[in-house]
Amino acid sequence: MHFRTPRIASLFYPLVLFCLALAIRLHFFSGFILCDDVEFFQLSHYIYSGGLNFQGVLQYRFLVWLPHFVSFLLLGVSETAFMLPLWLFSASLSPLAYFVMRSWQYPLPAALLAGLVVATAPFEVLIGTVVSNDLTLEWLMALALLAWARWESRPGRLGLAWAVLFWLGFYTKIWVVYWLPLIGFYFIRRLRHQTDRQGPWAFCGASFVLHGLTVLFWKWKMGMFFPFLTAHSATYPVPANELGFLFRQYPGYLFEGSQFGTTLFGWIPYLWILLFAARLAANVLPALRRRSGGLDRNDWALAALAGLFFLMINFFPNAFRFDQYYSMPRIFRYLAPLSWPMALHAVKMAWDLSRLPGGRWSPAWPAVFCLALLPLNWAQAVDATRPGRIQYSIQQKMVEDLRQLCPPKILLESWQSFFLQHLYLSDSCAGKAFVPLVGIYQAPEHEAWLNENQPQLPTGTVLVSGIGSCVHYSCYGCGFRLVHFNQPLGPAWKMIREYESLSYLPDPEPVRLWQLESSSAEVPAPAAPEPEPEPAYPGGVQEAFDLGMKALEAGLHAEARRHFGFITTRMPESALAEDAFYFHGVTFWREADFPGTIGEFQKLLDRFPKGRQAPGAHYHIAMACREMGKTEEARRHFQVILDHFPQDTTTRQLARQQIDLLPALPLWERLKALFR
């Protein structure tokens, strides 16, 4: 039986579902709360600003940055512009569920309720409010299922569509290959039972052309055919005695929830298992089989989409190496491709259980079931997004206060300070005030840094305590977390703002702004002390350098300068002189003394203009210039690295990444730079 609606309704209902889903995602928006967000934002921004150089694995995965690049071109660089493609992908999953149900000849109420359940499913809401390229993979999977539902009778068109979607998925996440066995099984079955050759020939032929042209492009651009394989993301071998714990993590995310005790998938997996068991029983019990017909091929397709991906991502070595079990860190967002088919399948099976003899439906109980699920989904979406919403709310209040205060210096954990400095406060005086806290993460490291550097901080410096690094990645004790300090802040610090606590943490504390009321940097200098005796180094230059490095690693910058300075002034011809010049400059950078940084690294360049440390010197000078607002000078030094030091690939990549933080080139220049 075919269910038809007027043409305007066929467009109206999906549009309503899309707008509703989009409104829900905007309501629960959590912002940049995952640790990878800095990398994704920097990547999209510097490609927008300066073009591609195909350094690093993410640049090959072009669907990771291309939608954001286009959005930046249209709207400029902002939080909204970056998130817009992800909101669109997520919100469109709801009408895609509607179209699949209608393509399978389900009535309009069933299709609408399927779209509503997908729009409100807690994991779908959560993944639509954060930065996640796994959402893009889920969206491509949903398009592939819709193509199958609409074009199975046109195998050539279906094979071509699958080839294009698989190619796009491959350059989003290599895990798209987990569905290859399912695609192969389908085409082999079609060959055996229907002698259909158009589908597999179209899929294989189009795949050969797409991937062939792509690897030829890599060869032309990079000098190698498969750079995306050699640059595969880092993984680590898991000891055999930890495999049991490892394999339980993803089931825990599915059925239990997050590390904070909040839900992720809600009741969807439980309902899916219950309904699947009921439909499976209909396959073997004659009375039920006559009524609902049992599981059909569409049921098996949806179950295979979710089930095969889960088995492969949980048990298959993610690095595709087999000498040991290699795994990526288990992160909840990787499970995004499970949510959509499970939510859609739960609605489908509920309606199938209401089928009457003759193929008609009795929609009363499945409608009640789905309508009852919607408020439950909403409540669980509130719970799932709670940690991110709390942090985002505090962050936005803090942004407004810092904008008004405009302090001379701001001390904040480095991950948080990135987005405040380069996005939310980039157009204000506060955006230039952040002190770079390089290479420190945990609270004791921040306390030690503060104890050493507080005398050099100007009066009015603002310290942000109680808020650490990203949400969901277990960095509970990162940043200026006073509950993890050995001593409270000194009397020179006055609390000027207090916000709510990050209540999802195991040891929450209120987020506070503290202002430095007095600084030893402004106390009149005492009489000049007697000069210290020149240090003696029985071990010669090597001993002086080793002592300098030891002091630098301990954060004792003044002592480190004393040791390195002995080499640069007394032994400038020694083999370690260039390194001593370099690390002497690093001590100024770590103290956020930007004029001193520029001056010291310029001394290195004056003496070793083509030395092995010259790229690092240009990089530090450029970073210091950027912090001082000298944009063009910073760009010039970054460009020197790109133009004159091709052998230093690491510093070149860093320079490329930092160019994105400078004012963008005109639109035409950005378009040309994309393919430089």
Tell me, rounded to a whole number, the average pLDDT: 85
Pick out the low-confidence regions.
521-532
Estimate what percentage of residues fall within beta strands. under 5%
Query: What summary fits the major beta sheet?
Result: 4 strands, mixed
Task: Determine the N-to-C terminus distance.
Answer: 56 Å
Helix content: 55-70%
What does this 3D model show about the protein?
- Residues 521-532 have low confidence and may be disordered.
- It is globular and about 95 Å long.
- It has a four-stranded mixed beta sheet, covered by helices on one side. It has a two-stranded antiparallel ribbon with strand order 1-2.
- The chain has three domains: 7-30 and 78-155 and 235-362, no CATH class; 387-520, no CATH class; 540-674, Serine Threonine Protein Phosphatase 5, Tetratricopeptide repeat (Alpha Horseshoe), CATH 1.25.40.
- The protein is built from 28 helices and six strands.
- 62% of the residues lie in helices and 4% in strands.
- Strand 5 and strand 6 form a beta hairpin.
- Helix 9 (155-170) packs parallel to helix 11 (198-222) and helix 26 (631-644) packs antiparallel against helix 27.
- The protein has 676 residues and is mainly alpha-helical.
Task: Give the tags.
two-stranded antiparallel ribbon; Serine Threonine Protein Phosphatase 5, Tetratricopeptide repeat; 3 domains; 676 residues; 4% strand; mainly alpha; 4-stranded mixed β-sheet
